[in-house]
Amino acid sequence: MPDDVLSQGVLSQTEIDDLISSLATGNDNEEPKQAPVSTELEKIVKVYDFKRALRFSKDQIRSLTRIYENFARLLTTLFSAHLRTYAHISVVSSGQVPYGEYIRSIDSMTFLNVIEIPPLKGRMIMEVQPDIAYAMMDRVLGGKGTGMNKISLLTDIEMKLLTNLFQKTLDPLQEAWASISHIEPELSEIEVNPQFLQVVSPNETVVVVSMHAVIGDTNGTINIMLPHVVLEPIISKLSAQYWMESGSKEKKPEALDALKQSIKETNVEVDVELGKTYLTIRDFLALNKGDVFQLRNRIDEPLTVKIAGVPKFTGQPGMKHNHLAVQILNMINEGDEDDEW
């Protein structure tokens, strides 16, 4: 191969430097590749109706539901005892709506018990459907508890009977609220037309707790309406944190002292078991005064001391001031007592 051809295949140092410079320059001019970035951001949009402002959290609604679940249990006991028939009340739902919407959902003729609950301001409503109210009144009058779907013209005696019956529900209501606030409920009036009842403004947020009621063979609904103005002073107590703190906080010292003193003064039956044995019915019937039979316990074994019939201690017999006595040796832990003879 000629020398000039070989020389063409060899680069000088200057040419190598120029080539490297040109490659570096070319890389700088190129735009770096970027990973594709999505410019579309998903946005979650919720429709908010200012006419239906939610002023209660779900936590607060759950707290109110717990209160009226307790109220429903107390009503079940009250109606069962007073009406002497099967009765069952249970909470089925709870939520918040404007007062105007709640009023429009009520039938034209129903029993609306307006209850004042001092020291809280405002009034609450206990709505009782006519069939349930008539079933209760029928039981009070000695009937089978038949309900009616329509309210007829009530006599003064019938209205007085219903008033007395609804008046009895105030004590359970006070007891159900005791864990949150001390209230003194008073039944101010009974209205049968919701259009004539203006407790708060139509746009005011109210909590409605619906309860399913069974009186005998009659089914119906009892609704509780609580305006925001009533709950506003105690709104901080309607939280899970308050329930947890109130459940774990230490009771008042005087209450604890009274409880301890009551426990100390409680009388319990204490029995000392000397031993056990087997006897046939024939031998048992043949026992006479002065007869001796052998127990299965050894003389040096400790005795079992029972508190209210439950084995709690082991002890040994003895005398104290010329009286039979037992000395406590150990406490019996659960599962230590042998159930077999």
TrEMBL record:
Compartment(s): Cell membrane; Bacterial flagellum basal body
Keywords recorded for this protein, A-Z: Bacterial flagellum, Cell membrane, Cell projection, Chemotaxis, Cilium, Flagellar rotation, Flagellum, Membrane
Domain of life: Bacteria
Major subcellular site: membrane
Residue ranges of every copy of the Flagellar motor switch protein FliN-like C-terminal domain listed in the record: 262-332
Membrane topology value: Peripheral membrane protein
Family membership: Belongs to the FliM family.
Function: One of the proteins that forms a switch complex that is proposed to be located at the base of the basal body. This complex interacts with chemotaxis proteins (such as CheY) in addition to contacting components of the motor that determine the direction of flagellar rotation.
NCBIfam families: fliM_switch
Name used for this protein in its record: Flagellar motor switch protein FliM
Taxonomic source organism: Bacillus norwichensis
Gene of this entry: fliM
